[in-house]
Design goal:
217 residues, disordered C terminus, Tetracycline Repressor, domain 2
Amino acid sequence: MAKSGAPSSATREGSDRSTATRRQLVDAAIDTLTSDGYGGASARSIASRAGLNQGLIFYHFGSVANLLLAALDAVSEERLHRYGTEVSGVQGPGQLVDAAEAIFRNDLDAGYITVLVEMIAGASSTPGLGPEVSARIRPWREFAQATIEESLGDSPLGNVLPAKDVAHAVVALYLGLEMLSHLDGDAEPALALFAHARQIASLIEALSTPATQEDSP
């Protein structure tokens, strides 16, 4: 039996009442997930952090699980905006790797990945939460696919490697690296992979550059 106030089910979010109060609760939920994990994200702890009555959580969101999903939505929206800024104007695989490393470092410093890691962990014990979390990862695959397609452009690899499949692999690898870095408390192994990826990107760019012939004297 679930503890009183603990996430017990994932249902659709209720109607939007007070934007300010909802945002206050969402911010508190993000802080609670980051500091106390999914297991500590009860209605009482979140409301206490927000300085509000815990009844407002159920009034505005219907359940604690829905509030935590709203917190994940808020983090994802901010990350997508930031990612879009980072990759804007990126040309070629090398610059894409540089942008990915900058994003990775920012995610770790800001604690964004902790929210997702805790929600994934909670999906194993909360009915209906798994599909909801999975649905919120889908936009990242779509974003990765669009970025890869733009980065590869008309290069030969663009015709050989399906961007959709590559995007799925990239997102899975990226999330895995962030989760391991979070669990181990050590990002250096992951950062070393970016250095290797940069070497591979240089090779890809070299292979993609059309050969030129010197003009005859």
